[in-house]
Specification:
Low-confidence stretches: none
Strand order of the largest sheet: 6-3-2-1-7-10-11-12
Structural class: alpha/beta
Strand content: 15-25%
CATH topology: Rossmann fold
Number of strands: 12
Number of helices: 4
Order of helices and strands: HHEHEEEEEEEEHEEE
CATH superfamily: NagB/RpiA/CoA transferase-like
Helix content: 10-25%
CATH architecture: 3-Layer(aba) Sandwich
Shape: globular
């Protein structure tokens, strides 16, 4: 199936989840994540989940990461629209946020963390396949950002559903995940 079809079908499935299903699946994913041992890390690139699209609330896994690694610093992406790129901005107590044109909350400003400093990236997705390739919202920000990270950066996705068999229109610019955590298991690629 092509990305646009996977995106449409899987996003519709996610939007149809009831509040109880969201709570149950979120708890299961958090449990899977808690049981997965992470290497020591200093910088986590996370993101603000789109609640209106029933995205997994990664703040739960941010908190688990902070508990396991008290020294970790969390950054969120900020889109640089004139270049179609993304930057990782450190999140601090006094960080101000604004919604961008895609209705995504991002830091207004702050310290930019170099991609080469990032140890782990929580990567948003709508669906993923058996090779770890994902379907996002189609703008390619993460696929442009991730190649600038270290080769050993850990790329983790979270999905309420199991993998799709195959995404047919993967190209050389698509960057696969290392892990995708679902309510029932952790897929490693």
């Amino acid at each position: 199936m092509k990305k646009k079809d996977v995106r449409r079908i899987e996003l519709e499935k996610r939007i149809q989840l009831s509040s109880q299903e969201l709570q149950d699946r979120t708890a299961s994913i958090a449990s899977q994540f808690t049981n997965h041992l992470l290497s020591p890390l200093l910088y986590l690139l996370s993101y603000y989940p789109l609640k209106e699209r029933n995205e997994f609330d990664v703040a739960i896994c941010e908190q688990i990461t902070r508990e396991k690694h008290p020294m970790v610093k969390v950054a969120w992406p900020k889109i640089v629209f004139n270049s179609s790129n993304m930057e990782a901005h450190l999140i601090e107590k006094d960080t101000l946020f604004i919604k961008n044109k895609f209705n995504i909350l991002e830091p207004l400003d702050g310290v930019i963390i170099a991609p080469s400093s990032i140890d782990i990236v929580f990567v948003p997705l709508i669906a993923f396949d058996k090779k770890g390739y994902r379907v996002g919202y189609g703008k390619g920000f993460y696929d442009r950002y991730l190649p600038g990270c270290r080769p050993d950066v850990l790329k983790i996705g979270f999905s309420f559903f199991e993998r799709v068999d195959q995404i047919d229109d993967i190209n050389e610019f698509d960057v696969p995940l290392n892990l995708c955590i679902t309510p029932t298991c952790i897929y490693e690629f």
